[in-house]
């Protein structure tokens, strides 16, 4: 489980052994609330560990408003997803070498992977906060020298928004605008594992039955069988000539 402060990019990573809502709430309290100032709002993805029990625990006991990410942007935070990618890569490399035989050995390997993945934090967040570290921004002190630091939050916010705008313009530079419509045929992207790289990456075509305003559409997989899917997982179907 990765927790990030979007203002300073300060990150904490802790393993979830059971993946339950109560365990996730315990991690938030022990890892973040007990060490840092209480946040006003907590934004999560749509994972099962952030269910109603997690919301009740934070909202009723701590007074923290819990909000979930939207269907159009299912990931909670891009830096968090980058950290998760690093953790997955490290696990695939270290696990065969360590070959854990017990539950305790497995936890030790996970802790080692999480500590190694923390090195990806400066790479993922340096563009938004310049030469400052997340720790220096959070504690207002230099991490190497015992001297106070004053941070201009206005300049930091401006730099962050400028970076977001530049990345958005670069990503949209070569995109072709397309609005999906009812009865249009589309192809659905499928998830491929390492052993399935030679299989088709799209299936279909499928007919669109409903277009929603939150970036999702409903497609007809089979007669009377429908699926709501994000527009990022489909592409227009072009019939062969």
Automatic annotation (TrEMBL):
Transmembrane segments: none annotated. This is Integrase core domain containing protein. Coiled coil: none annotated. Residues 1-142 form the Integrase catalytic domain. It comes from the Eukaryota. GO terms for biological process: DNA integration. It comes from Nitzschia inconspicua.
